[in-house]
Design goal:
Oligomer: single chain
Strand content: 5-15%
Radius of gyration: 26 Å
Number of strands: 16
Length: about 650
Amino acid sequence: MADKQSSCSDWLVPAVCVLVFGVLGSAIYFQRNPAKPPLNPPAPIGATKTSDSNPHSSRPQQEAFDGYVSSANCRECHEYQHDTWHASYHRTMTQVASTNSVLGSFDGVTYTLPRKNETIHLSRDGNEFFARLPRYESLQYDPPKDSRGYPIVMTTGSHHTQAYWFSLNRQTDRSVALLPMMYIKADKRWVPRESVFLHPPEFTTSAEIGRWNKTCLNCHSTHPDTTPHMDQQSIRFETRVAEFGIACEACHGPAKEHIALHRAAKQNGQAVGNDPIINPSELHHTRSGEVCGQCHSVHTTRPRENMIPPDIQKIFRPGDDLDETRMVVMARGERRAFVEKVLLDGGVEVPTYFRDRFWDDGTIRLAGREYNGLIESACHTQGEMDCLSCHQLHKARKDERTLKQWADDQLSLTGMGEQACLQCHEQDQFQTPKHTHHPPGSSGAGCYNCHMPHTTYGLLKGIRSHTIESPRVEQSLRHKKPNACNLCHLDQTLEWTAKHLHEWYGHEIPELSDDHQTVSEAVRGLIQDDAGVRSIIAWHLGWKPAQEASGTAWIAPHLALLMQDPYDAIRYIAARSLKRLPGFERSSYDFIANAGERESAILDSLSVWQSTVRTNIRNHANVLLDAEGNRNIEKLSQLLSTRNNRPISLQE
């Protein structure tokens, strides 16, 4: 079928794509004692260019403009803050391609995309990287001007995966295109780009020429300038940014005046006057959260008649009211009505747009859109919680974690575990068995696990929801959204959860079907529900707290079913979860191998499972096994025949 645009593609899609390519940054500095970048001498504030070592001019350029002067100038006074930021994944959302930034192997690699039967040749020449793409060269794209192929000029991501942008080497044009394969860091392997995201099996990707220039740059660079479009019809751009990646000025605002004030004050021995720099930690919690929300949200720009001036989109700067420049999209209320009208006017299918971004109850389901979750939480609307209540953008000096450990989630010392919630909630009231109904110190007693379950999806895994709420059976019953109880107690039914919530907190027990009374909610969901739910359950089957609460002896055959799923991403997650089970660590299953090879590996896994002792499985009937551990094929087939096969394409 014809190429389709992949995630981050429609014009109303969230401008974040933040973690989309394995979001956030580079592992280069992740050592216990990382080597610090050299301390630069004070830079001239009026500099017109930032350091940009890649020789290719036919790609987006880094320039100092509009008061933005780059992070290199910040280190003059803020060395420690600069160095911890330099070790973060924010810094390397976008990088110039070099031996220091490229994670994937380009040394004479030949890779064939399974669905397209298309062969790509990768090569490296010193600090330069190239790709030969015969299919693109034979279509409407400009042929490479170098016999080595198209030059790889930029990278996106390196926390989990990394994507690569190549230049078409057009004169006076900075458009870049996307390599149709990505590198999975943990597995040290190349895979087709469409296989990394949760897309239907028929979905294919294109080179997406100009995608970075007009969409990705908004949240993968600092202060992008998208105005000098040379010719959008032929997809030609003259793009510049203040800095690749999310740098100091993305959160603190333009620093030119700030630096000038401090240099002058130091030189003259005078006090600094009215300093324009913004410190998000000193803002009202609403404004502070909006600094993160400029990227970490599903949003759209304001209508043209509201722009200031009318023909130019106002640029958001930290400390501004976010609502003046963009509207955070909600799946309910007035904001949904506005977005629906815009979508209908643009010929976009409304149900699909919301389904691919929100759960049916209106809460966000995508990673990187944490701000959407925050603003729906009472802790924010009725309290003073903002992003910095738990996260920090610079590792604290007293923090003994390595930079790598800190950078994984950028949690502050007070943002880890129950301490985050106890900043506001009384320990004697909430951190007790009377409230949690779980033993102290157990995973079930953890605030996060009950109130921020992993119902957000992204980066081939479950991620904690940032809509802080209490578990309710109707989440699963009415809205098809997994609840915290059954994501930990994977072997229990929805009726079991309903009875406990009724006994503990007085929740009304709703009318439940026979399946909800007799079949584990996780097992029912992984067989019967849509691909979004199946991906979340597949991840939880490999989650250690859930395995401890539910046992592991029954899990393998259900993962085997998920390893036959039509969605590539679900097969990947299921195979990874299988390797986290005792005895399956060396599974040879490959999620993108041909169907015959996958089936053979699945049979091998089932053979391993069948050779184990399976007579001590608790709640065996719930997980569709008999007392001897044999599968209830009749019930499995019945549930499978009623699976929700609606297409799901989560827009990471």
